[in-house]
Amino acid sequence: MLRTTWRWFFPRLQRFLPSHHGNPLLARVDRLATVFHGLYENGNYDPASNGEAWLLQQLACFRPALILDVGANRGEYSRLALDICPQARVIAFEPIPSVFAQLEAALGQEPRAELHNAALADSNGEIRFLFDPARTGNTSAVVGVQTAIHGLTAPEQITASALRLDHFCDSNGVNHIDLLKIDVEGFESQVMAGGVRCCSMSRLTAFKSNTARPICSPVILFMTTCVIMVVIS
Questions:
Q1: Would you give the distance in Å from CA 227 to the centre of its chain?
Q2: CATH assignment of 47-232, among 2.60.40, 3.40.50, 2.40.30, 3.90.190
């Protein structure tokens, strides 16, 4: 609904504003609307040009030792992180079995990569995902994302295992996370809710959301030791 409304409103705004170009307030509105539109409609998945590689390069000076890739898809981000941060180990999570097979094919022989066929959520158990086989990066556990954001009318439904981040860290002896990347199509706040303790110990936290869905939640209020970077791509 929001995207449909914005797509109706933005071109009308762009037609209206030029005729009032002398108004400083409307000029500012024009600039803000253009920036927001560029962020909201950005479908660029190329790390070299969408900001992902640039962000990792900026974070590399902190020499992250452990990077978690939540919503790893086929492993593009994990591969990029391993290349830019040669001292880092990556733990990647991908819940969809067919996509996880591609992740394994890409990084299964990488000694610094640990791969898990599971989702992270606010509770242990199972989650139903809405899956687009043609665009696997659009998979979401949030009802409405596939139809309203990506325009898919009949997504495939898949049930997958889910873990709380705190549970995973406790079970696997993870005591510190240097960089946490989350790209789960609107499910970010649930991932954070399952990892309050782990997130509070993180030194760097990076979020990447492709849905323009707000990811802020009360969990973030407890993340007093983190640098929170929001990257919309």
A1: 16
A2: 3.40.50
